[in-house]
Amino acid sequence: MKKFSTIALLLALSSSVFAADEMNAQPTQCSFLPNAPDQHLVVKGDTLWGISSMFLEHAWCWPQVWGMNREEIKNPHWIYPGQIVYLDRTAGRLRLGQPGTSGTGNQGGLPTVRLSPQIRSGSVEAGAIGSIPANLIEPFLSQPLVLEENELVNTPRIVATQENHVNIAKLERAYALGDLHDESNFQVYRPSVALKDPTTKAIIGYESAYVGTVKLVRQGKLPNEAHAFVVTNTKEEMTVGDRLLPVPNQEANNYVPHPPVSAVEGQVVSVYGGVKQAGQNQTISINLGAENGIDVGTVLQLYRLGKIIQDKTGNKELIKLPDEKYGTLFVYRVFKHVSYGLIMQVTDAAEVGDIVKKPE
Question: Which residues, if any, are the signal sequence (predicted)?
Fold first, then answer.
């Protein structure tokens, strides 16, 4: 694991970045690739990010080249397998068309029959492609959980196991005390582990490990009577002392990529799963959250911190090498001081202490 130098935090950030919302700062150029294809047939398994990466230098620019603002594409479930994405080189836009069109109509040779993006409500409609691969983030939409200090103190807790087993397996009974607030389905969490800022070492949140789910089968009638639960699913072994939280009503949404409104700089706090490095399609946490202006869909760039070296050609003073950009992070879950992001493209492995910045 690389050591982090605080000297790098003194460097200024570039303020010239693309803002997806038209009310935000002046956008930068969203350039097409020199070898971008004229069209792409949408197939099952495609994502908006993946399709955009075929046409654009920066895949997260796709809201701009569709000529849409963030308000219009909060829930953009409008591309389906079998449709064709056309590149309108003259207008600098991507357009959606039906198969079988001649390709000799108006708009510089584009088909005259086109579909326009439409706003749809609710969760991702059957068959519609998403912004990013849903299967990679769905487990993280409700777990793990980042909490403030002592948030788990007053939650129901497991106090006994079936036949005094040390651990509780699927379909076995667990007994818990605490106010259920009329809920019957719960997620089970292991008491929190502190997440520390890589530089200041201050605690910025507590990550609780998800261990499984339980369902209420009998509610305690007396103040000191435990509630009986059956274990419906386990990720790790459940045991006495684990805490219960109601299962959230969380759906996999179609996230719209956009840079943060203002310049931000943060660091990688942890790689989920306790490993030291993370690659493409893996989840990491960063020390930026809602209080830093981060929201769902925020795109950040990953940098390896430039080393501090001695200038051996001059007066031996210390100099800092530039931070090296090596990847893109797509934020999909945000807490107060911490966010989870999916690594989209990287040329190197992400590590704790690496820098995240607003795209340049």
Answer: 1-19
